[in-house]
Amino acid sequence: MSAVVPGLRPRKSPVQARSSATVETLRVAAIQVLTREGLSRCTTTRIAERAGMSVGSLYQYFPNRDALLAAVLEKHLDGVAGAVDRACRAHRGKPVPQMAAALVTAFLAAKLRAPEESKALYAVAEERGGPELVARMHKRIVAAIADMLASAPDADFDEPAMTSAIAFSALVGPIRTLLEGHAPAGFEARLEEQLILLLTAYFDTRRRR
């Protein structure tokens, strides 16, 4: 079931290959306009032009710009959550340091796969419907991390859900700092290493002795 809030759902689901291709074309066009021109100029007209179709064709799939951008954001967040979830599943039963490294690596790879897209979607995430989508993604990732931590053979966590929520929050801030251009020189080169150290140390302090 789609996590898009009421009023922002697509008009119809792309059940046929041609429809799926059209929706993907619109999604890519929306990202291109958003990253190159910003949210204020990311209109249905500009998106349709970029996609090489009429605005009327766009409206066959999405009732308005917000619905299209919500779909773009949802797919991005699903990709990030999916990457983290797969990493957590693959590392269940592994030592905690390996869990920390896998979590950091998976999250950074997902966010930096298309850095301009990730950066531009921060603005969309703050629009109508965006916070709900982000909250759902956050809940999914925290649950995946908690399940992984609960399987650790070398630790016993009193509050895996709380530990997971704080650990994930510790990853979100630095990556946004990097993507929005506020990081100092050398930040990106050492980010993965430093975040692994941070989470490994945090998990070590949180586990029951």
TrEMBL record:
Asked if the keyword Transcription regulation belongs to this entry, the reply reads: yes
Domain HTH tetR-type spans what residues? 20-80
Q: Which domain of life is it from?
A: Bacteria
Transmembrane region positions?
none
Under the heading InterPro entries, the entry gives:
Homeodomain-like_sf, HTH-type_TetR-like_transc_reg, HTH_TetR, TetR_C_15
- List the keywords (alphabetical): DNA-binding, Transcription, Transcription regulation
Q: Which Gene3D superfamilies match?
A: Tetracycline Repressor, domain 2 (1.10.357.10)
Recorded GO terms, molecular function?
DNA-binding transcription factor activity; transcription cis-regulatory region binding
The record's DNA-binding region positions are 43-62
**Sorted alphabetically, which PANTHER family does this protein's record hold?**
HTH-TYPE TRANSCRIPTIONAL REGULATOR BETI, HTH-TYPE TRANSCRIPTIONAL REGULATOR RUTR
| Protein name, per record | TetR/AcrR family transcriptional regulator
Upper lineage: Bacteria, Pseudomonadati, Pseudomonadota, Alphaproteobacteria, Hyphomicrobiales
